[in-house]
Amino acid sequence: MPEYKINDLLKKFRQGTILPEEQAFLETWYLKWTSDNQHFTEEEINAAKSKVWLALNPPVHRLKPWYWLSAVAGILLFIIVFWFYKERIDNPRTNLVVEKVHTDFKPGGNKAILTLANGEEVSLGNPAKGEVASQGAVQVMETETGKLVYKRRKEISEAIMINKLATPRGGEYQLVLSDGTKVWLNAASSISFPAAFEGNYRKVSITGEVYFEVAHDKKKPFLVTAREQEISVLGTHFNISAYPDDEFVTTSLISGAVRVKNLKTKVEKSIQPGQGATTSSANDDVLIHAIDKDEILSWKNGYFQFDNQNVYSIMKVLSRWYNVDVQFLSDKNTERFGGTFSKGKQLSETLANLEKLGNVHFTITQKKVIVTD
Question: Where are the transmembrane segments (predicted)?
Answer without folding.
Answer: 66-85
